[in-house]
């Protein structure tokens, strides 16, 4: 991923082990040098709002889990939708879930902010391809 | 004690009737009276009565009109109509419109009225009990379903983490595993996961409403084969789809049925078979689709054939892993969409399933 040197990845998942797994999958495949993990969607939103004042917002891939306590993935999307375009334009959201629920799947597909829904466990190759494709299109 | 008494509301415009009724029955029942429909309504607002007796011939609102008025608001109390004269029209009207249990001729015979009231109360309490039981059952059923649903999701999440850890250990080569233990763990994960997925399929089949959409059997069958062909790459699939007319059906259930049957055809092959075959044919007609799935696998013992659609039944003549729930789900899904299934098998030679599914495509005109 030399083409996007400042690419960063934000991981949002309430499961510590999955956070660790995804972190490792990204660093081993050298998809990004900057990985930020949040076990709470609210904390991730706080972080993103602190970015609004930055002069330059780096391209950001967000791996977002669906089922989480307090704020779930869909609630995160709803709140994030009200953020300024400046930051939304730089964020690419990939939903991640072990859910086989058709309702979850169709809700994800219907959301224009979501690029893809990936099933857990994440396949290293698939993750790499999806992220590469995001930036190939530009 | 007082709460256990039968509560009766009696509505009549003639006050001496109300008084006579009260005098006759006050020792046996808890009695409320009203001398007009409007007053009766007032009483009903405050007190839950079991039985309502109304005179037919009253000014402004008749007994039948009154019963008709309250039947949606208060469906539970049993209604008895009192008529001074045998007007057949009134009675028929009453029974049809007002959900009336019985009618009594005026002047009433004390014993007859007594018996009628007691019968009415028996019906009241039987209905009430039935209602309570139904509510209770619905609640248990709902809880059970939600339990199945959330348990299967909660079971699956950590299992997928375990699989993720194995994937990672392969990716970074951090584990030396000369005995192949990781592979064994993986086999167990896949087994458990496919069982959890079956439970979710079962849950969804029993809960989801039918939804009819256009189905292209060529695409659907190709998808199913793609899912399973890697499990045994030597299998030769012959697919013949004869779909000249459009087909509409419940996509989820039909794919569950095909997935389970194709998965079985792939799984139950003979280990020493030199040319394993799975033949699939679909014929779509305006009113139904007929699907045949045929394999030359190990077959099913004839004495087991009648049991294969039972929940958790597993044939003992094979040592393949299975949950014994696949064909049960197939049968349940077919019964939801009004389809049928037939099976023909020879032990050691192969198995053939034939299913028919009604075509829900409305005629375009």
Question: Can you walk me through this structure?
Answer:
The complex is a heterodimer of chains A (138) and B (365). Chain A is α/β, with parallel strands linked by helices. Chain A has a single domain, classed as Rossmann fold (3-Layer(aba) Sandwich), CATH 3.40.50. Helix content of chain A is 41%, strand content 21%. Chain A is globular. Chain A starts with 7 loop residues before the first strand and ends with a helix. With 365 residues, chain B is α/β, with parallel strands linked by helices. Chain B folds into three domains: 107 residues, Response regulator (Rossmann fold); 73 residues, Helix Hairpins; 147 residues, 2-Layer Sandwich (Heat Shock Protein 90). Chain B is built from nine helices and twelve strands. In chain B, helix 1 links the parallel strand 1 and strand 2. The model of chain B has no long low-confidence stretch (mean pLDDT 89). The interface between A and B is medium-sized, with 20 and 17 residues.
